[in-house]
Amino acid sequence: MKPKLLLCLAAGILLNPAYRVLGSMVILSVDSTNIQTLPFVVKTEEADYGRKILFRVIADPKGAPYAPEDNMHFSLGGASLSVYDGTNCISSCSVAGQKVPSNMRDVKPPLADKGVLFEFTVGTNYLRSVEFEIGYGSTLHPAIDNYRFALQTFVPAADTGLSFGIYLTAEAVDRRITGYGQGNWPHIRLLESPLISATDIISYNFMEHSMRLRLEALAKIPRPPVEGTPFIVVANGQRIYLGVFVTCTSSMSFAVPTIVVDRQALVTNQPPDTLVIQRAYPQPSFGIGPDPRGDQRVKTVLNTLHKLKSEHP
Questions:
Q1: Which residue, 91, 155, 200, 229, could crosslink 217 as a Cys pair with Cβ 3.0–4.6 Å?
Q2: d(Cα 29, Cα 149) in Å, to the nearest integer?
């Protein structure tokens, strides 16, 4: 028998669940194109102003059984994060699992009830060399199934080296800054993860500064008090401008860009999945200085990420 044919037969036997070899390990690749057929869910969001990606992987502890009576289980310590130089693993650390929070969206049974959540962050510069791995053992076949996640495929925006986010502040903002545009705001601390990231945006109309958002992003929009809830727009790790979430019932004025969260009460033809970043509140004339919404850095990032909606019909 020819060597090539022998190799093909050996590979076919090893990858067939009915012919697992004692003590063997089968490497199974997981990416954004095949995960729908596997017992996993991967959720991502930007962190550290776009320099890192927070991954949340929810895994079925029973894996993908070969037969109904098979009792699959985590093996090799469960899950790990490994750094590769080509095919050589040069570093690895374990990732602890936890119960899936009841308020986590878009996770359906049985993963929502019995799944195990693994959380970890990876720098955008290392997405191509780092892989998340989950090992499973089987009671029917004495071998290990090792699932390797190609992390960069779940974050296409990060693969370009570009990022966009609207962050809530981690501390109070002086009313003189939001109300009168006076004061130093770039030093203000931000929450680690963006409230709205590029993946949350379906499209952005740069002429109107309106953005269509995914439902899960809309559900996170704050309900601001009368004095508003400050936010900062960040592009490629650079703070572009300060703004405020407000409500149309607020009697205060704001000199910075504003997002009126209940604007539909006044503008009834505004689509329910759309937010508009206005120049100021309650009228554009309350804005002070150049309009920061038109910053070219924002337009460049959104255009490269294919988020800009055509400004012409």
A1: 200
A2: 6
